């Protein structure tokens, strides 16, 4: 266990590492003629959001020297690599056809630009912490001729910046390459190129506090709103149907079973789900330490997700808050480790006196281990491509330090607290020494079919929102409606809980007492459908290349695995409450 002063120094390091970056003047206030910070960030193919490179990897003119901006951990994880630019912005100072570079492009440099233009490369800059994009050139397919010619390549040599301001603050900025002022680089010969830019300042009445609303408007288009609300209504309808079915199940079957069993003789009690009360239904399952680790890790990730949604609701996280989401994600994952240790140890203590350390240790590596392996492979791929998404050695060390000196001690602390304050499990009867044999089940009562039903029903409630989320993650559709996302997530949890109760009852009715792991698999199977949909999304998209495919599959595998643990933990908890409730009623009667 780390000493208190070591933990204090670690927290200071954490605050320094995860600080959110801002423009040079921290209050974003500028006087007339004052320099406004502009940073070039990255370039990449439009259809491959994960494949990005440093701006100066293309043979543009470079400042001397190139000064890289100090970045937070979240920015590095996001693939941002900000550097100084040759463009000069002065507040409220217009510039027309200002030359910032003049050079002769060699044949190799022209070939590099042609490859970039052929793949629709775009650039991203930041002005006063506002993102702006533009294309570096254009490709005209009309250049094809019967004589065997090819397309024409044009490199944009003039960029126009339109900046809106209110008082002494910048509100909005746009950039676009002028297609009428482009250099023809179709032929493989050296070309003299002069790069210019213009800056036009215009006043606006939009307040500084509302300058990010322009990104919100993209998600508030009528079609997008209709899709969001249709998805929410779809979830509510499914919940009402499931409540009706479970009410019918409880009123007509479960209550009648309880009444029948209470009035029947001993021999009649040996059929149906009540027959399991003699010691099998509460028998700890095989690999119970792993099961409790799944529940602990799932609980941790559920709390993490809820906190992130809350931060989005109150406006702490917003679109293009550079690295903000990943900063919070890394910090909250480390801090929430205490819940994983507490939950795993407390559940272990319900059924065993010793060995809680094994459950807590498994909880420490159950999600972190696979993610670390996947991230390491993806990082090797990114570095081989020289992509900005590859993590430098220093960032890897920071993450390992956070996990070693913050996450692991907190998980151990939670484990100790969970075991010390554990409650004793009260079973309705003593556990038998040998489990009873389970009869051969019909195909519709076996695990694969129950997993299919347990995953399909919740997935049908989130498929529309899932498409919007994937379009935001892997496209350029800005998802800025956390309220709808949160309003959809709550019904999904209710749907998983209701489906879990129904499937557990069906299993017990077939005199199958091995419900523990099956409840986890049935609840978590929704994530399998999610992963299947991500594959469908990739096939329908314009993404291509090994780098993009690797990151798409790897990231989505980690994401869906996290939801498998979350939904599995929810399903297990609800199933345990349901089983304890009905067998408590049997014992009472």
From TrEMBL:
Cellular component GO terms, alphabetical: endosome membrane; Golgi membrane
UniProt cross-references to InterPro entries, sorted A to Z: EMP70
Chain segments annotated as transmembrane: 229-251, 290-318, 330-352, 364-387, 393-421, 442-464, 484-508, 520-539, 551-579
Keywords, in A-Z order: Endosome, Golgi apparatus, Membrane, Signal, Transmembrane, Transmembrane helix
GO MF assignments: SNAP receptor activity
Record membrane topology: Multi-pass membrane protein
Subcellular location: Endosome membrane; Golgi apparatus membrane
Name of protein: Transmembrane 9 superfamily member
């Amino acid at each position: 266990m780390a000493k208190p002063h070591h933990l204090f120094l670690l927290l200071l390091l954490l605050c320094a590492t995860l600080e959110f970056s801002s423009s040079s003047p921290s209050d974003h206030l500028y006087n007339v003629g004052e320099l406004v910070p502009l940073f070039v960030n990255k370039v990449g193919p439009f259809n491959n959001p994960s494949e990005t490179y440093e701006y100066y990897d293309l043979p543009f003119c470079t400042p001397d020297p190139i000064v890289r901006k100090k970045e937070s951990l979240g920015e590095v994880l996001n693939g941002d690599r900000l550097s100084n630019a040759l463009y000069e912005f002065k507040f409220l100072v217009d510039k027309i056809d200002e030359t910032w570079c003049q050079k002769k492009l060699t044949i190799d440099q022209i070939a590099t630009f042609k490859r970039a233009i052929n793949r629709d490369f775009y650039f991203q800059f930041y002005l006063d912490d506002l993102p702006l994009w533009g294309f570096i050139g254009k490709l005209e397919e009309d250049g094809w001729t019967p004589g065997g010619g090819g397309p024409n390549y044009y490199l944009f040599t003039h960029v126009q910046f339109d900046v809106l301001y209110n008082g002494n603050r910048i509100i909005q900025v746009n950039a676009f390459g002028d297609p009428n002022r482009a250099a023809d680089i179709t032929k493989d010969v050296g070309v003299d190129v002069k790069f210019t830019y213009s800056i036009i300042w215009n006043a606006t009445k939009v307040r500084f506090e509302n300058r990010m609303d322009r990104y919100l408007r993209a998600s508030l288009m009528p079609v997008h709103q209709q899709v969001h609300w249709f998805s929410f209504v779809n979830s509510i309808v499914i919940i009402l149907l499931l409540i009706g079915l479970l009410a019918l199940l409880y009123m007509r079957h479960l209550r009648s079973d309880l009444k029948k069993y209470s009035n029947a003789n001993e021999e009649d009690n040996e059929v149906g789900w009540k027959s399991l009360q003699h010691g099998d239904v509460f028998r700890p399952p095989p690999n119970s330490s792993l099961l409790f680790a799944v529940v602990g890790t799932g609980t941790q990730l559920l709390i993490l997700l809820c906190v992130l949604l809350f931060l989005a609701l109150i406006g702490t996280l917003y679109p293009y808050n550079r690295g903000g989401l990943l900063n919070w994600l890394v910090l909250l994952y480390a801090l929430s480790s205490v819940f994983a240790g507490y939950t795993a140890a407390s559940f272990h203590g319900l059924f065993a006196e010793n060995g809680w350390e094994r459950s807590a240790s498994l909880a420490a590596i159950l999600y972190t281990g696979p993610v670390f392996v996947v991230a390491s492979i993806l990082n090797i791929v990114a570095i081989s491509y020289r992509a900005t998404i590859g993590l430098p050695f220093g960032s890897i060390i920071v993450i390992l330090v956070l996990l070693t000196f913050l996450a692991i001690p907190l998980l151990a602390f939670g484990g100790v607290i969970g075991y010390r304050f554990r409650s004793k499990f009260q079973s309705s009867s003593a556990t038998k020494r040998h489990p009873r044999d389970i009869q051969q089940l019909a195909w519709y009562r076996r695990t694969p079919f129950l997993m299919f039903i347990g995953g399909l029903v919740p997935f049908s409630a989130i498929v529309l929102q899932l498409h919007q989320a994937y379009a935001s993650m892997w496209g350029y559709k800005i998802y800025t409606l956390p309220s709808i996302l949160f309003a959809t997530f709550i019904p999904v949890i209710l749907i998983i809980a209701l489906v879990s109760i129904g499937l557990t009852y069906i299993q017990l009715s077939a005199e199958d007492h091995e419900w523990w792991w099956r409840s986890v698999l049935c609840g978590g199977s929704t994530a399998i459908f999610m992963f299947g949909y991500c594959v469908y999304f990739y096939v329908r998209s314009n993404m291509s290349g090994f780098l993009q495919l690797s990151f798409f599959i790897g990231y989505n595998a980690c994401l869906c695995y996290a939801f498998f643990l979350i939904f599995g933990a929810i399903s297990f908890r609800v199933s345990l409450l349901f089983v304890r409730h009905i067998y408590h009623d049997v014992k009472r009667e």
